[in-house]
Design goal:
Blueprint lengths: L1 H22 L9 H29 L2 H45 L4
Helix pairs in contact: 1-3, 2-3
């Protein structure tokens, strides 16, 4: 039963973090790829720090199985979230560049 509850704690933490970032639209078009990747790196680092703090709280209040399960699964979930956020950031930046390119081609055409 403890293992099941430890998995529930892990899922709740990462799902709530994902939904908060999605709701606030923190990953959106930026001025450049560098800024977009910096935003993703900041989100990953802040989520990592929050996960470490939660692991310390779990270690003080609950049995060790909670901390071990959370720490083991947090690595893989954080990796998956990082890949997802990088993909979203790059996809949105690519869409912006294509749209700007099409607009510049439209305005550069000469009217006869």
């Amino acid at each position: 039963m403890d293992l099941f509850l430890a998995n529930i704690v892990t899922v709740l933490f990462f799902v709530s973090a994902y939904l908060l970032i999605k709701k606030r639209r923190l990953i959106r078009r930026q001025k450049s790829y560098f800024v977009a990747l910096s935003v993703v790196a900041g989100l990953v680092l802040s989520l990592l720090l929050a996960a470490i703090c939660l692991a310390f709280v779990l270690a003080e209040t609950l049995p060790a199985i909670y901390v071990h399960t959370f720490a083991y699964k947090a690595v893989f979930v954080l990796l998956a979230l990082t890949i997802n956020w990088l993909w979203q950031a790059i996809k949105q930046q690519s869409g912006r560049k294509l749209r700007v390119q099409r607009d510049s081609e439209f305005f550069s055409q000469k009217v006869i």
